[in-house]
Write a structure and sequence with these properties.
The complex is a heterodimer of chains A (316) and B (247).
Chain A: H1 3-15, H2 28-47, H3 49-56, H4 62-87, H5 93-102, H6 118-139, H7 145-173, H8 177-196, H9 208-213, H10 221-239, E1 249-251, E2 256-258, H11 264-274, H12 278-291, H13 293-305
Antiparallel strand pairs in A: 1-2
Chain B: H1 2-21, H2 30-55, H3 64-69, H4 89-110, H5 116-144, H6 148-161, H7 173-180, H8 191-204, H9 226-235, H10 237-241
Helix pairs in contact in B: 1-2, 2-5, 4-5, 4-6, 4-8
The chains are: A mainly alpha (316), B mainly alpha (247).
């Protein structure tokens, strides 16, 4: 079959909602787009462990510490799962990690903001995971099979993450004046970065139209953003927190909340590497990788020396 | 007396868990990051069972978080081994392995405690500790018998930490009374088995057995290393800065 016929059959498969699987023929650009998006997604999970890890040793109670550890562990698991799904497209985990460290691959910019108080852990769960879920729920129907299946699995855990974030803030909002102030302060700092997580407006989004045609993307940036704002405003009311946007108001005609202008200058500043923590995040990942090199080498050497990779054990 | 014994058991799990949780997001590979976090999580769970049980025997009626996160340093009864820092992955593994071999023997004996609740906690925890031991022992072998570099790093870690396991087998006066009553484990009887297992592992891992026979002590009496104050400063921060609040 010639290239054109393959292209045609591929698009028919997409239009008929039949998932594309690793061994199916696919256009190079489709493969590249997926590698870019899926590895970026995997990197976001891994880099996203860092701002939360910043509070794991200072969690206020044993129960909160256990929940936070479990949550961060979930994220590591999501990263692992997404790296594996991306490897089905013919790229290795090592290559993806190199691209992250060199700055060639991106990750969600929201993780370049610092976690300054315990309430930030609540805000990340509620807002950042909440925004991620909007995106990921739409991606459960994405056209590439391994990505779609990864999303279905990941979404189940993410909704638990969002609830635990909300629960942290709810507890703070029922607490002392200091705790309420802590919650409001975190909300003030995380609201706009969360709104920005959906990316540029549809008119300015470079990858959107082709991705929509290929059904990699099932909802536009602005649609997802609106869904998120509508859902979150009501939850903020339950918490008793004030949305840090004087222009936010219900629009009866649209049946949606209107909200103020997004500071795109800040968005692009952070995307381009000049957010508050970009350098620290990549430095932390690079350090873990470099420090781990002798460990990975030793494990490989051991596996080579011994016929099977797992050492004998006296305890099981 | 039982109260103090429970705290002693819980503190070891708590402080080791705290040390491991510092590594969350910084492991040598994603798989080990997950494994270390998982062990940290198990240890918090074990500590919580013990603290929750201890609250029933506390004259001051403190809750588990007040016990775990608000006591002064010299009331913590963990051994010095578990507060040693995460110098590198070799130190993390050696510390873990030394402790896991002990934890395994200790819980294996504690399942026979005449205190039913304690025996039940031990039974539940033992299942997890078996997995921890398998993990740390396998990494002892991989890193000891891996490359020349990994072998050297492991040897350095063993030499650094060799002075600490001895304290695990010391008996406090309270432990002696409780052991006689069949409630606590006589840890002094575990030392030979521990040594035998550890020496076998070191040999299989092509690592040398250090010559030193002396050991550091103090943790079980509340006299800790300089590391402990920093661990607690971090761990207790919110409870100290905002006392008596709900989180």
């Amino acid at each position: 079959m010639d290239e054109k016929a393959l292209q045609l059959r591929f698009q028919e498969q997409i239009d008929a909602e039949i998932k594309i699987e690793p061994k199916d023929w696919m256009p190079d650009a489709y493969r590249k787009t997926l590698i870019r998006q899926m590895s970026q997604h995997a990197h976001s999970e891994i880099v996203g462990m860092l701002p939360e890890g910043n509070w794991v040793t200072r969690a206020p109670t044993l129960k909160r510490k256990a929940i936070l550890l479990a949550k961060i562990q979930d994220e590591a698991g999501h990263g692992l799962y997404l790296y594996s799904a991306t490897e089905t497209l013919g790229i290795s985990r090592d290559e993806m990690i190199q691209a992250l460290h060199s700055g060639k691959a991106k990750y969600s910019s929201v993780f370049n903001y610092p976690t300054l108080s315990w309430a930030d852990i609540g805000a990340i769960g509620w807002l950042v995971d909440g925004a991620a879920i909007m995106n990921q729920v739409a991606l459960m129907r994405t056209s590439y099979g391994p990505y779609s299946r990864a999303m279905i699995r990941i979404c189940k855990e993410e909704s638990f993450h969002q609830r635990q974030g909300f629960d942290i803030l709810y507890t703070l909002c029922q607490g002392s004046e200091e705790q309420k102030a802590m919650a409001q302060d975190a909300f003030n700092r995380w609201w706009w970065p969360s709104i920005m997580m959906f990316g540029p407006h549809d008119a300015e989004s470079t990858h959107s139209s082709q991705s929509t045609k290929w059904k990699i993307k099932r909802k536009s940036n602005d649609e997802l953003r609106q869904d998120f704002v509508d859902a979150t405003v009501q939850q903020a009311e339950v918490l008793g927190l004030t949305i840090p946007d004087p222009d936010l108001k219900w629009n009866e005609e649209r049946k949606h909340y209107d909200f103020g202008a997004i500071n795109w200058e800040e968005f692009w500043t952070v995307v381009k590497g000049n957010g508050p923590c970009n350098r620290e995040r990549i430095a932390a990942r690079q350090k873990a990788y470099d420090d781990g090199e002798w460990v990975r080498d030793a494990a490989a050497a051991y596996a080579k020396k011994h016929t099977h990779a797992y050492p004998s054990t006296s305890t099981s | 007396m039982l109260f103090k014994y429970l705290l002693q058991l819980a503190d070891n799990q708590l402080i080791l868990s705290q040390r491991l949780s510092e590594l969350c997001g910084h492991g040598p590979a994603l798989e080990q990051d997950i494994a270390i976090t998982n062990i940290s999580l198990d240890l918090i769970g074990q500590a919580r069972l013990l603290f929750q049980y201890a609250t029933k025997h506390d004259d001051q009626k403190r809750n588990e978080d007040q016990l775990a996160l608000v006591r002064p340093e010299n009331e913590y009864r963990n051994v010095l081994l578990v507060e040693q820092p995460n110098v590198d992955f070799a130190h993390v593994i050696v510390r873990q392995y030394f402790y896991d071999e002990f934890n395994f023997l200790n819980y294996s004996a504690l399942v026979n405690s005449k205190d039913e609740e304690l025996a039940a906690i031990a039974t539940k925890s033992l299942m997890e500790v078996k997995y921890h031991l398998r993990f740390s022992r396998n990494w002892m072998l991989r890193l000891g018998d891996g490359t020349a570099i990994s072998n050297q790093k492991m040897q350095d870690a063993i030499d650094d930490l060799w002075a600490y396991p001895g304290e695990l087998f010391e008996m406090t006066a309270d432990e002696q009374v409780l052991a006689k009553a069949g409630v606590a484990v006589d840890v002094s009887t575990l030392q030979e088995n521990w040594k035998e297992a550890v020496l076998a592992t070191l040999q299989e891992a092509t690592l040398a057995i250090p010559e030193g026979t002396w050991h550091q002590t103090g943790g079980k009496k509340g006299i800790h290393s300089e590391y402990m104050g920093h661990i607690l400063a971090e761990m207790q921060f919110l409870q100290r800065a905002y006392p008596n609040q709900t989180w």
